[in-house]
Amino acid sequence: MKRIIFLTLAALLLSCGGPAAEPNTKPANEAVAIVNNNANRFGELVLKLLGDWTDEEAEPGAVVHERWSRTDDAFYSGIGFVMVEKDTVFIEHLRITVDSVGVPSYHARIPSQNAGGEIAFRMSTCAGDSMVFENAAHDFPQRISYALQLDGTWSVRVVGPGKDGNLRIERLRFKRRQG
Length: 179
Hints:
The protein is α+β, with helices and mostly antiparallel strands. It has one domain: Calycin beta-barrel core domain (Lipocalin, Beta Barrel), CATH 2.40.128.20. The chain is built from 2 helices and 10 strands; from the N terminus they run H-H-E-E-E-E-E-E-E-E-E-E. The protein has helices at about 1-15, 30-50; strands at about 50-55, 60-70, 75-85, 85-100, 105-110, 120-125, 130-135, 145-150, 155-160, 165-175. Strand 1 (about 50-55) and strand 2 (about 60-70) form a beta hairpin.
């Protein structure tokens, strides 16, 4: 029972709590410049994110899943969930959109939080094999990064202040799900 409570709490810490806030980490013209300089790289990286991914090592007894699909050139939808045995203990709805000026944003919606509303994170960096999305006005997380590793896995970091005010970093290592 303690393990299930811990996993549920861990999943909630990975989630987006607090009031919805507009992503406002960089001025719009600076964000556009970042994306324009790396538009091709963003397109390549987000396509590599498509599919089913799992992290079976984040917590013993739990499997963290993300599933991404492409709706069109400017919209990618995903779902994240945590399974403990056959029970889903956490679920979030994800999407990556590209606005009319070409700036990508990462959106997360957890039905039980923020009155069911989305939290948006504007892309702050797209370089090499990494995509970083930020929302400094949000409580936790404030930064979500996806880094493609040489072995084809994704290293995901979810960063922001913890409830105690200290920096909290959650790390996931997603492997492509086989079968």
